[in-house]
Amino acid sequence: MKTFGFAGWSGSGKTTLIEQVLPHLTTKGLRVSLIKHTHHDFELDQPGKDSWRHRQAGAHEVLLAGGQRWALLHELRDQPSPSLTDLLARLSPCDLVLVEGFKREPIPKLEVHRPALGKAMLHPDDPDIVAIACDQWIDAPLPRLDLNRADEIAQFILDWIQT
């Protein structure tokens, strides 16, 4: 499976951009999956529900299955967080995996940058960043893409993974 990442500071618009790029990729016939890294604790399950109670009781994994989707909840307990490689191995086969976060992983990445945030650019310290999506013109040694043109960004990704 090919991977392509989106890296940027919090508030730069990574999630929104991915949300806009995905339809352009899927209409080209690609089966696309996504892995998102978060530094925050999160809860997919609802306290009090049977599956939540099973996890609280000590279940290592709980798989929820319904007519429209299924989800596997895996409790790390005292185990370290899995690597991107470990997570990729758990996905079903697809054409492309978009990765949000994991900005230090050695995969090709698009830096999502908004100068108004006042944060430093990531690409000078990350040789895996292959282009920059920005909401205004910046001077950079990499291809620059308009953050507001999801169609052009999707095409860049398609071209990149086909090389």
UniProtKB/TrEMBL annotation:
Signal peptide residues on this chain, from the entry's feature table: none
Domain Molybdopterin-guanine dinucleotide biosynthesis protein B (MobB): 4-135
Example GO biological process: Mo-molybdopterin cofactor biosynthetic process
Molecular functions per Gene Ontology: GTP binding
Protein name, per record: Molybdopterin-guanine dinucleotide biosynthesis protein B
Organism whose genome encodes this protein: Chitinivorax tropicus
